[in-house]
Structure formats: structure tokens, C-alpha cells
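Morning, I've got a small favour to ask if you have a moment. It would help a lot if you went through both lines with me. I owe you a coffee for this, so here goes:
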Amino acid sequence: MKTQKRRIAVLGSTGSIGTQALDILRGNQADLEATVLVARSSTELLIKQALEFHPKAVVIADETHYRVVHEALRPLGIEVYAGADAIEEVVQREDVDLVLTAMVGYAGLRPTLSAIRAGKTIALANKETLVVAGEMIIREAKAHGVQIIPVDSEHSAIYQCLVGEEQGKEKKPLLEKILLTASGGPFRGFTPSQLESVTPQQALRHPNWVMGAKVTIDSASLMNKGLEMIEARWLFDTPPEDIEVVVHPQSIIHSMVQFCDGSVKAQLGQPDMRLPISYALGLTKRIANSYPRLDFTQHSFTFERPDLEAFPNLSLAYRAIACGGTAPCVLNAANEVAVASFLEGKLGFRRMSKLIEHTLDTVVLSTTYDLSVLAATDHEARCRATEWLKKQSK
């Protein structure tokens, strides 16, 4: 009996995660198919992907590009839509089983929530969704019986380490601590004074991983690890004080979990994002591949504590999750402004944390939220961050 292919909507198909996901689909066409492709503005690549994968529908978020995409794909009978509302609608289609949320930043929140409410399985690569609205997302997923499979390498590692573990009285693994590993980024070992003069070009040269620009800068500033800590707090229902960040420069151990008996489980592998992506797309069933294998005789593992003086963003993330409510939303919005400004050469590397701290200090926080409160908070945080930038440039 022929099994039905798993039908996938790829949100952010032209980005780093999206293109690697399509590479996996390309090699597993008997089991996986892309029925929906969504991109922000990379028109040429989106059209090229649609011509190869023949999805049922595509969405270009930037409405100014609609005509070009529509005219290119109309002869193939592919449905073409544009705008943010269209993304929220397309994830609810009956011909979608799994939604890979690989959009960057706050923009991924509403489509993810829409997909959850439609009962779709979520392969979550958009960490900002859980940073901004983790409590809401987990609550909605439970209410709709939706499985969320993390795509971040660290969270995929933790997820894999917890599979098959005995459950305690509250139906939770007997988990004592999460050890969240960090590469340390390209500036590991730099002093605060050395970091004053680093450039975007230097920050974009990650020593181990190939990622998009935003997450690469976040990795360099350790904000990525702060966001991942918040994500882990919600995904694994673990208090922040039980999530320890450990610098592991080799990026072979992707994360570890420590249990109540003191034993530790770790997940290891090459620093290749296709591994956690394929694990999620396979619904935690492993998909065979021919990627390079580890040779343990060629590796040694070392560990360090993160330097919080040189990289204060990690402390700011712990502060935000301790405050709760809308504080992580403010953190995320301010960080997005900071990263964009740094990449444009308008803000120094060390000043990013100053901008984020100022925004956390000045935006009025709410202990409870819904989508409208989050949207207003996100807007206010971006305005406060932008105002601070303007004052600094005078």
C-alpha cells in the first residue's frame, strides 16, 4: 500500500533554514513534498523554487512583488498570494500536514499561531515566536493537541535526549538541569575593549555554523543563546535557573540534559543544520543521509563559562524572562533593531547591549498579554530603540 507523502508548508523558503529544508525534500521526494512556499521578498529565488517543487501555493510577503511572482507562476497553475494575512491563511490549508516556521523575527508569530489553531504539526525554527509569546504558544498547542518539534540544533538535541525517559508524577521527565551549549561565536576570548572595534563583516564569519545574517550576529553577541534559553524554558517547561549556558567551542555536543540521579545525556553530531531539520521533517524518525560523519579521533571537547562582562546580552535575556509578561517581547524587538543597525554600520557591536538595556528600562511592561498587547509592545519597543539610536548619532 502506497503511503501518503507528508505535505509541508515552508515559511521562509528562501532563507538559510528554508533552502536547507528544500535540499532535504529534494532527496526524499517519495516521502516529503512542499505544498506551500513562503518568502519575504526574494522573488527570483522563490520563483526558481516554485518551478522546481511545483507547490500548490506560494506567498510573497512583500506585496510589491506580487505581480512578478504571479506572472511567472500563473502558467503552472500555482496559486499566488501576497501579504501577511495571506501567510496566516495559507498555513491552514487542508493540503498541509506540517508547517516549518523558518521566518526570521517577530514576523513568525502570527503564522505559527494560525497553524497551531488549525491543528498543524509545527517544525519550529523561528525561536522569536517562543521568546515573544511562549506561554501563549504552548497553551494553544496543548489545547489543539499540536506537536511542536524544535529545529534549533540545541533544542533538537534536548528533545532527543528526553525521548524515552521515565516520567515523574507530573508526567515530566525526571530532569534536573538543561546544559545549553554555545560555540562562543567568532569573538570568544575577546575583551570588552577589543569588541569595541569589531565590524559586521567579522561578526558574520561564524567559526562553525552556516546561518542567516541575523542569527549569526546574535550568535556573535550571545543574544542567540539568551533567546534559546527562553525558548528552552517554554519548550521543556524548565525554570530559567535550571538552564545553564556552557561554551563549547567545537560545536559537536549540541546540548545536554542532567537528570535527578546526576547522569547526563548529550546529543552529538556535525555542526550541520540539515540534521535537526531532517529530524523535525521526519517527525522525529531519522532520515538516512550521506553527510560527513564524526571521526572522534580528530576531536577533543572543551567547555568554558560564558563571559558575561564582554557579552552582557545573555544576562539581559535572563533578566527579561525573570520579569516575565511582555519583557521578552521588548528584549526581542530591541535586539532586532540593534542587529539591523549594527549590520548597517550605524551602531557599534558593544552598543547593541546598551540599546537593548535602555529599551528594557523604558518600555512599560505588562504581566499579561494577548496578540494586540504584544503588537503594541513590539511597536513601542522599536520606537524607543529607534529614538535612542537617533540621540546617540547627534
Notes: The radius of gyration is 21 Å. The chain has a mean pLDDT of 94.
